[in-house]
Design goal:
The structure is a homodimer.
Chain A: E1 7-13, E2 17-18, E3 24-25, H1 31-43, E4 48-52, H2 56-70, H3 72-77, H4 79-85, E5 88-91, H5 94-105, E6 110-113, H6 125-134, E7 138-144, H7 151-154, E8 159-160, H8 175-187
Parallel strand pairs in A: 1-4, 1-7, 4-5, 6-7, 6-8
Antiparallel strand pairs in A: 2-3
Chain lengths: 202, 202
């Protein structure tokens, strides 16, 4: 059992993802996602959060938001926001993301896909938590935008995480909220440790 | 132990809350909060979510957003959003909120305040979960905006919930993300049952 926090990165993926009609597209940023995921990154001690978009204008927008709040008056006005946004990194592809992680910590990350849809062979939160806290290595949690990660990407991942369900069958949470729940289940206080298998998800 | 979901309401409170300089103010809506909290309401089977603001223009804004997505083309374009937003109710005060709950279910709710700051005598998630699932009655979870619920309001509540911490000391999460984590800890799957007291929050 490792005694230090797992080395977990997050990636907010804007391509390749599905649109409403299941075409593979590049989605636009929702700037609040940048703030929220940055704050989650620091709250849960993750290694960092990558914003993946091949669209140059979207990259510029992200950099502009980050610069505004981490430099000059923005950084003074809201220091907790500045602290958080320092943990965001903008990349144009998953290849660039992987290259960056290898540069920083010498390891290729182990990929974990997430989706609101159920997939055969998906891993439970209990099992993944055990892997994160029990094994060495670097992990990367992929968060989809739009209508979810493209299947071509999901099938390349080592794990696909169970969808998030509460006590109902409705599970259409925005990525920023889902990410918080995932991180709390995977990295949150041991008082929420998993001691038993669920009888039912619903 | 109750066999049905706890009767828990949520309230997104825009007054009375603090601004950055600890003055009691009425904050503006963040429309994404409406969408996110509505989706959480349905995901976790809560009874409903009240948006509390005394400002008439803000009430109109909220009603406009809800109407747009629950009627006509908006409801057709995004049915999961429409489903969720039907669970939002706009009120001008906590008194009006309480009156509405009493009208609907015949009980005065038991108030639970939430805050990012630690308070003496705050209740842990484990203990509150036990109360929610073990006792009859109706509960109301107050979520603050701005820099948090005014103390005059917190001291009127039966419970003040522990702040959310991950493995670090940084705990500046946006209310929409914090709400998701709270609901998952309080109402989420029993596989995340609390079996031990934490050694440390950090």
């Amino acid at each position: 059992m490792r005694t230090t926090c797992p080395k977990l990165y997050m990636a907010l993926v804007h391509f390749p993802v599905y649109n409403k009609t299941r075409q593979v597209v590049a989605t636009s940023l929702t700037t609040l996602n940048l703030h929220d995921l940055a704050r989650l990154t620091v709250t849960y001690g993750t290694q960092g959060c990558y914003v993946v978009t091949p669209l140059q204008r979207q990259q510029e927008l992200a950099r502009h938001v980050i610069a505004h709040w981490t430099q000059g008056y923005g950084a003074v006005y809201n220091p907790t926001r500045a602290t958080a946004l320092h943990h965001l990194h903008i990349v144009d592809s998953l290849e660039a993301l992987e290259h960056d992680i290898v540069q920083h910590c010498g390891h290729i990350p182990r990929y974990i896909a997430t989706d609101a849809r159920p997939f055969p062979g998906s891993i439970s939160y209990a099992a993944l938590r055990e892997i994160l806290w029990g094994q060495e290595g670097v992990f990367l949690l992929l968060l989809g935008t739009g209508w979810g990660l493209a299947e071509e990407l999901i099938t390349r991942c080592e794990y696909i995480l169970d969808p998030i369900y509460g006590p109902t069958s409705y599970n259409h949470l925005p990525v920023r909220v889902a990410a918080g729940i995932m991180l709390d289940r995977l990295l949150g206080s041991p008082r929420f440790s998993m001691m038993q298998e669920p009888v039912s998800d619903l």
